Amino acid sequence: MPGDGFTIKSRIRNLLRSPSTKHKRSRRENLTSKVTLEKVLGITASGNSGLTCDPRSGLVAYPAGCVVVLLNPKKNRQHHIINTSRKTITALSFSPDGKYLVTGESGHLPAVRLWDVAERRQVAELQKHKYGVSCVAFSPNGKYIVSVGNQYDMLVNVWAWKKDVVVAANKVSSKVTGVSFSEDSSYFVTVGNRHVKFWYLDHCKASKASAPVPLLGRSGLLGELRNNFFCDVACGRGPKSDSTFCITSSGLLCEFNSKRMLDKWVDLRTSVAQSLSLSEDMIFCGCADGTVRAFSPVDLHFVCTLPRPHPLGTDVTAVTEAR
Questions:
Q1: Which position has the higher pLDDT, 34 or 117?
Q2: Confidence of residue 14 (pLDDT cuts 50, 70, 90)
Q3: Residue 254 contacts by C-beta under 8 Å, 6 or more apart in sequence?
Q4: Coil vs helix vs strand at 213
Q5: What number of other Cβ atoms are within 10 A of residue 281's Cβ?
Q6: Spatial separation of the C-alpha atoms in residues 282 and 99, rounded to whole Å
Q7: pLDDT at position 24, please?
Q8: 97-119, pLDDT tens digit by residue?
Q9: In the chain, what is the straight-line distance between the N-terminal and C-terminal CA atoms, in Å?
């Protein structure tokens, strides 16, 4: 019918008058540039490597998908670093001076990325892993970054990030869940399933080879605890700098001496232990049900159990007596 033909011609004419695809794309890009991430709810940390704190500023960093949340707990204010690769962040760690943050990620050909915390921009990256990064750590002298691949990757890389050179590399034979540098940056320790290993950097510093040298590793002498899952590690500080402290998932706090030998251990009296943090004066052990127990690093003497956090939704101002 004539009326139908007229309607079709009108529709075609209107379509030809509509803005071009290029103009639509530019409007969409302008809108994207105006959208900013204000607040992140939730956390995707799957282990101890997914949470770090800058001891100088008190800034806390944790992953939420491909975003690193930088939380100031005193002001309850967030800033964010968005991973440009859109890959999920799996591990992170602050530099000793708090100026930089190193992250590891999941997925195929993941990168170890270095970020400027103040400017929240990437300043360097390393792509030497194949299947995911489980742990990252800065050396106390700030010269090196160590990254450990997940159970499918198994690579350990020592990166002199200022020179953008991998100075040493090797492989692990177990799933690694924690890494810690010695106070003098001469070695670091990895822990995992039936795994405590000391990796030494002295020969790396002396080498002038352009290619990475084999990283020298020596297993800890576990004795009767050899079948345990060691879930976190912290090298000693101050007078106990020769010691290395580990925690097992079954609830044991262990101390290794300077000869890598398991010297002593204590029972944390918990069903599950998960994390470890220490200073020169105290060792804090994260246990089941929000329990945190404190020990002396001198002799592993029990000091106290910290008060448990209040349940969500509790009005702490209304509490009139201690429980």
A1: 117
A2: low
A3: 225, 230, 245, 246, 247, 248, 262, 264, 265
A4: strand
A5: 14
A6: 26
A7: 56
A8: 999 999 999 999 999 999 999 99
A9: 85
Which candidate, 110, 247, 250, 133, places its Cα nearest to that of 189? Answer: 247
Q: Are strands 67-72 and 60-64 parallel, antiparallel or unpaired?
A: antiparallel
Location of structure tokens 């262990």: 254
DSSP state, 289?
A: G
How far is 129 from 153, CA to CA, in rounded Å? 7
279 within 8 A of 234, measured Cβ to Cβ: no
**Helix, strand, coil % (nearest 5) of the chain?**
15, 40, 40
Residue 11, both tokens: 């529709």
In degrees rounded to 5, what are phi and psi of residue 215?
A: -75, 125
pTM of the predicted structure, to 2 decimals: 0.84
Structure tokens at 222: 């576990």
Taking residues 93-98, report their average pLDDT: 96
**Separation between Cα atoms, residue 278 and residue 90, nearest integer Å:** 23
Helices and strands (H and E) in the chain: how many:
3, 25
As given in the structure block, the two tokens for residue 214 are: 């084999």
Average pLDDT, integer, range 307-320? 77
Select from 155, 88, 94, 98 the least CA-distant residue to 128. 155
Rounded-to-integer distance, Cα 113 and Cα 127, Å: 9
* Beta strand 213-214 pairing with 165-171: parallel
Cα–Cα dist 295/245, whole Å: 11
Count, residues in the chain: 323
Kindly state the DSSP code that residue 19 receives in the 8-state scheme.
Answer: P
Residues 59, 70 contacting (CB under 8 angstroms)? yes
